[in-house]
Amino acid sequence: MTYKLALYIALFLTLGLCSYEVRAQRNVTPAVDPILETDAKHNLDVARQAFRLKKAYKGVLMRFEETYAAYPEFSNIEEFLYLAGMSSYYLSQNKGKQKVNLKSEKEKEKFAPQKLREDAVAYLSLMLEKNPQSQYKDEAETVLKDLRAH
User: How far apart are CA 138 and CA 145, in angstroms?
Assistant: First the structure.
């Protein structure tokens, strides 16, 4: 075997193996982004505390919106949708420690009771759509029934 022939065979085999690796990688599902996942988990922890301990529903919504805009594939989006839906629902009833100032144009646009009720329906419905067997299913369905009745 000549040197040139051996070089061509080696080049052919190398190119063949490289193209095989590229073909094999086409069907790989994208991996979870560890940085976005970590940031989303932090935001969920803060929102969870704001919801349960502080009744700071506006803060919950801000954390949710930030996270959902950046990373809607978050592994625990179900709980975040639940917290956002319930926070919207409670704010629409003027509950919580953070009061809505409807005299402020910015808050009036974002936190008008009708818009909050629509947001609650959207968030809770999406949560149930993503996970019909959610641990929050019963409460979400009760709230949705109430919201749709009004």
Answer: 11
pTM attached to this predicted model = 0.79
CA distances from 134 to 50, 55, 98, 124, 130 (A): 22, 23, 28, 11, 9
**Contacts made by residues 130-135, CB under 8 angstroms, sequence distance 24+:** 130/77, 130/78, 130/81, 131/78, 134/78, 134/82
State the CB neighbour count (10 A cutoff) for residue 22.
9
Provide CB contacts within 8 A for 119, sequence distance 6+: 61, 84, 85, 88
Spatial contact of 78 and 130, defined as CB atoms under 8 Å apart: yes
pLDDT single digits (tens) 135-144: 999 999 999 9
DSSP string, 111-138: H-HHHHHHHHHHHHHHHHHH-TT-TTHH
Please state which CATH class domain 33-149 belongs to: mainly alpha
Report whether pLDDT(132) > 70: yes
Domain residue limits, the chain: 1-30, 33-149
